[in-house]
Amino acid sequence: MQLFESQEIKVYNSLTGKKEVFKPINNGHIGMYVCGPTVYSNVHLGNCRTFMSFDMIFRYFRHLGYKVRYVRNITDAGHLVDDAEDGEDKIAKKARLEKLEPMEVVQRYTVDFHNILEKFNFLPPSIEPTATGHIIEQIEIIKDILNKGFAYETNGSVYFDVAKFNKEYEYGKLSGRKLEDMIANTRDLAAQDDKHNPQDFALWKKAEPQHIMRWPSPWGDGFPGWHLECTAMSTKYLGETFDIHGGGMDLKFPHHECEIAQAEASNGKSPVNYWLHANMLTLNGRKMAKSTGNSILPGEIFSGENDILSKAFSPSMVRFFMMQAHYTSILDMSNEALLASEKGFTKLKEAINSLKTIPSEQATNFNIADWKSSCYAAMNDDFNTPILIAKLFDAVKHINLIKEGTETITENDRLELETTLHNFVFDVLGLENKSSSDADSEKLGGVVELLIELRKAARENKDFATSDRIRDQLADLGIQLKDGKEGTTYSL
Ligand code: AMP
Ligand code: ZN
User: Whose CA is nearest to atom 18 of ligand 1?
Assistant: First the structure.
């Protein structure tokens, strides 16, 4: 028997606005699609939070024994600047500014994305398709929508006819918007606009002569609209209706609303049973976003090279910090919050590491079975990681009391506790035990300070071979020395 057969998961479904019992279409199997990054710049920590929330969900399903097909795409075409309907493609713009081929931009930032996710200990998705690899599929869907009468072609571009769609289906059901209100709140179209109505959105855009990213189509050279790629790739790999679609809260409208409209218009079926939306990471109270400059890159946190934080934090520590908030809540990042989290994470790891050596006795003082089921109950309640972490700290409290001799545990219960903690901390939350404890960092700091002293002495003696060797070998180990007016400092 698989674990999932004994667990009932409830998820908050944005489509219905309710917490619902999760039932996959095929028993034991889950199809999950998550909108991936637009690879025109380095991922910031906010992007990572959304992907991490779904990595945790993927991990929990797998832990329960589900066979999950997790599709997370790479947006390498079609996403226009400012998420607008007109204007330049984000990747094409970057390529133009940096005098690169668009695919060089895509390659550079896809590699960066993968590197960062690996540092955070993400599991790779089952399929990671790209928009440019699915142009043919996108053109086929446009043809379908045109045939059904829910789109029109003007001047080499094809637009989705929202008003017509709304007569038979419901546009706005995911985001809770009404088409009439949208119409009342938008300005009239300019006379030269290709669209019939401001709410209509592009399925295919004509490429002007200077546009470098272009593909042939029945409507002339052009490129697909942003929303279409996700409909094409999710349908291709997960079917016309699948279990879960995820993404950041900011994608609900228009992106996900348009995905629903495209799918329903082309095949008449509602594409997704459960829509899950992850909330935003803010930095000092404001949404983290590359465009406003209010963002921090993961690499700047790991190295400590930034103006926001007082020290470097390991990827696993940042992951723990993120997991302390529910994925549907806003999480604000600040130096104080990270420092507080670090203390907790160190305590948790120390307790887990000490479990192997605690003595076993004839009896156990606390009910391990109840504790374990409360951990599952937390995760089953819409993946409530903050409650799960509170439960993990209940275990830490007992471990520390056992170490003090105030409580006891049997050998069987010790093993059960160890396995359960490992399952939740490392497999489900995806944390790692390898980063050093505070005490270890202090020792490392002492050693580096000693080497800085020896290097200084070597330089004073004009023994530059030795001083360079110390600097270079430390650099090879990932420890950078920086000489400044106040002396030499280092970063990991
Ligand atoms: P993009 O590369 O802009 O398409 O965004 C990739 C993902 O990151 C999307 O799911 C966004 O919703 C998400 N995202 C963007 N900014 C933030 C933020 N500040 N906090 C959490 N997720 C974000
Ligand atoms: Zn998408």
Answer: 46
Residue type, position 492, single letter: L
Residue closest by Cα to atom 12 of ligand 1: 248
Q: Could you report how far apart the first and last alpha carbons of the chain are, in Å?
A: 46
Whole-prediction pTM value?
A: 0.88
Question: Could you list the pLDDT tens digit for every one of the 492 residues in the chain?
Answer: 999 999 999 999 999 999 999 999 999 999 999 999 999 999 999 999 999 999 999 999 999 999 999 999 999 987 887 677 777 788 989 999 999 999 999 999 999 999 999 999 999 999 999 999 999 999 999 999 999 999 999 999 999 999 999 999 999 999 999 998 888 887 776 666 889 999 999 999 999 898 888 999 999 999 999 999 999 999 999 999 999 999 999 999 999 999 999 999 999 999 999 999 999 999 989 999 887 889 999 999 999 999 899 999 999 999 999 999 999 999 999 999 999 999 999 999 999 999 988 999 999 999 999 999 999 999 999 999 999 999 999 999 999 999 999 999 999 999 999 999 999 999 999 999 875 545 566 678 888 889 999 999 999 999 999 999 999 998 888 788 888 877 887 876
Q: Are strands 272-278 and 242-248 parallel, antiparallel or unpaired?
A: parallel
Closest by Cα among 280, 418, 396 to 346: 396
Please answer whether residues 68 and 58 qualify as being in contact, where contact means their C-beta atoms are separated by less than 8 angstroms.
yes
Rounded to the nearest whole angstrom, what is the distance from the C-alpha of residue 381 to the centroid of ligand 1? Answer: 24
Nearest atom within ligand 1 for CA of residue 288:
19
CA 110 to each of CA 73, 98, 107, 116, 320: distance values in angstroms, whole numbers, following the listed order: 11, 17, 5, 10, 25
Burial environment of residue 258 by CB neighbours within 10 A (0 to 12, 13 to 18, 19 or more): buried
Ligand positioned closest to the Cα atom of 38: 1
Task: Find, among 38, 109, 41, 108, the residue nearest to 293 by Cα.
Answer: 41
CB atoms within 10 A of CB 5: 10
Tell me, in angstroms, the distance from the centre of ligand 2 to residue 303's CA: 31
Name the closest ligand to CA 47.
Answer: 1
